Structure to design on (364 residues):
């Protein structure tokens, strides 16, 4: 068996083996992406009006007081023209007067929870995510093998063969090849990033860069206006888009503070996120860490100032699920997942016909 024959065998049999798992991942990915896209494209009847620093400071104070369980407050932008208070799996939309426009919990949507866990771990708890991860990596390898096999016999693009004319294996195979060429690169990225999300220890260390020591003006403690003003002065040409506090683990009770006359106030660390320019792909990537209790800026780090490894690592999750990415990117990966579903369906039908169809005829 020569190398090309071996690669074809690997491509066919390994592709068939992982096709079932990848079909589950891709079909649920289409659903999850569609839900995300519908949320992003709904303006809730609001028109974008930028808030002043005074309005942002007042918004923070009121929203965090009203919704202590929420971890992030996002200010209106041209992409989402309303205020958002968000926590894991939940978001509350507010107008400029802080009247509730909508309250959304992802798991309350029909089939969403089932689809999410099917996509993440096939509904088999912790072990399922590792099966998912290795199936994703195998899917990426099969994609590269498919590109190589096409490259050896390439005859150019044939748009008329993109969609099958009938259900014959030859028509399905041609469509498989054409569609595969269109989505091979983004599909490979989705596969590899899915693997890396599970094995996050391979890349999260690159994000732990220690910012360069800088001196910043000290703000007034527990004063949002003073602190946002100083933070904006660090990057005067960037847009201050959100403020986050550390998430508390579900069910975790706050630790009782020790009693004593010299007891220091507990530090409240917040992260202030910026966008350097409106067209930035990875949003909220420039961050300032501030101690809200004392008003001291602990660190400031722009995405562009990270080393290459840090910038790449910052994109691992966003490239997979569109977190903090434009709606157009979410539409792209949802379309890729939809096309990938078609490719796998065509290949499964063709493989089963060629592998098992002949044996059935001989037996008959």
């Amino acid at each position: 068996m020569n190398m090309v024959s071996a690669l074809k065998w690997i491509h066919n049999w390994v592709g068939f083996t992982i096709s079932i798992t990848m079909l589950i991942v891709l079909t649920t990915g289409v659903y999850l992406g569609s839900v995300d896209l519908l949320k992003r494209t709904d303006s809730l009847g609001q028109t974008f009006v930028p808030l002043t620093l005074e309005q942002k400071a007042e918004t923070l104070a009121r929203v965090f007081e009203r919704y202590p369980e929420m971890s992030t407050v996002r200010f209106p932008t041209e992409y989402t023209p309303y205020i958002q208070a968000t926590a894991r799996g939940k978001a509350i939309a507010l107008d400029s007067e802080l009247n509730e426009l909508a309250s959304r919990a992802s798991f309350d949507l029909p089939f969403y929870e089932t689809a999410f866990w099917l996509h993440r771990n096939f509904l088999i708890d912790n072990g399922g995510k590792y099966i998912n991860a290795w199936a994703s990596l195998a899917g990426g390898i099969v994609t590269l093998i498919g590109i190589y096999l096409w490259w050896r016999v390439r005859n150019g693009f044939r748009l008329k063969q993109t969609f099958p004319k009938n259900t014959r294996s030859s028509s399905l195979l041609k469509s498989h090849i054409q569609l595969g060429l269109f989505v091979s690169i983004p599909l490979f990225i989705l596969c590899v990033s899915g693997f890396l999300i599970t094995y996050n220890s391979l890349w999260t260390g690159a994000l732990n860069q220690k910012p360069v020591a800088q001196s910043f003006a000290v703000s007034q403690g527990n004063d949002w206006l003073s602190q946002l003003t100083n933070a904006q002065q660090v990057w005067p040409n960037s847009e201050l888009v959100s403020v986050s506090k550390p998430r508390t683990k579900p069910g975790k009770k706050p630790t009782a503070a020790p009693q004593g006359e010299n007891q220091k106030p507990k530090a409240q660390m917040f992260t202030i996120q910026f966008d350097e320019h409106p067209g930035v792909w990875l949003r909220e990537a420039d961050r300032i860490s501030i101690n809200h209790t004392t008003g001291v800026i602990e660190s400031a780090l722009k995405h562009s100032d990270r080393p290459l490894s840090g910038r790449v690592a910052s994109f691992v999750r966003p490239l997979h699920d569109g977190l903090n990415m434009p709606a157009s990117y979410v539409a792209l990966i949802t379309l890729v997942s939809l096309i990938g579903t078609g490719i796998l369906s065509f290949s499964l039908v063709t493989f089963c016909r060629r592998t098992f169809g002949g044996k059935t005829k001989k037996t008959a």
User: Anything to note?
Assistant: Strands lie at 72-74, 83-87, 90-94, 100-105, 239-244, 269-275, 286-291, 296-301.
